Amino acid sequence: MDIKLLSGLSLNRRTLFRIVLLFNLLIIAIAFSSLVVTVFGQEQQAAIPQGDKFVGAGIAVAGSTLGAGIAISGTASSGMAALVEKSELSTWLLLLAGLGEGVAIYGLIIAILILGA
């Protein structure tokens, strides 16, 4: 199944997943390299710089939001197909979509804990 993008380009799910995965790995690598440079470049300073907290909180929110989007898209596509067959499954559809949305909320809570530390 192809996914149509705004620019008229269509990608299948596997290709889109690989692109998103590589983008996330690149962001994690950049954040880790900045942390290593900060830790080993400033040996005399014991305090952790504030910028690393923001990068960590951003990664937590971005990763959890991406996971929630994947969960909700799968729930919505299969849930609508199930609702066509049996309309009494609407409660289960809302329950499963809420569980997928909970992933994003957990990421937001982790980001708040990182920023508060």
Number of domains: 1
Supply the helix-strand structural class: mainly alpha
The gyration radius over C-alpha positions equals: 19 Å
* Through-space gap between termini: 44 Å
How many helices in DSSP terms?
A: 3
* Strand tally: 2
Low-confidence stretches: none
Order of helices and strands: EEHHH
- Kindly report the average pLDDT value: 77
How much β-strand is present in the residues?
5-15%
- Categorize the overall geometry: flat
Helix proportion:
over 70%
Oligomer: single chain
Explain what this protein looks like in three dimensions:
The chain has 117 residues and is mostly helical. The chain has one domain. 79% of the residues lie in helices and 5% in strands. It is built from three helices and two strands. It has a two-stranded antiparallel ribbon. A hairpin with a 5-residue loop joins strand 1 and strand 2. The longest helix has 36 residues. It starts with a strand and ends with a helix.
Write the layout of secondary structure elements.
Blueprint (H helix, E strand, L loop, with lengths): L1 E3 L5 E3 H29 L8 H36 L4 H27 L1
Helix pairs in contact: 1-2, 2-3
Characteristic key phrases:
mainly alpha; single chain; two-stranded antiparallel sheet; flat; 117 residues
Short recap of the structure:
This protein is mainly alpha-helical and 117 residues long.
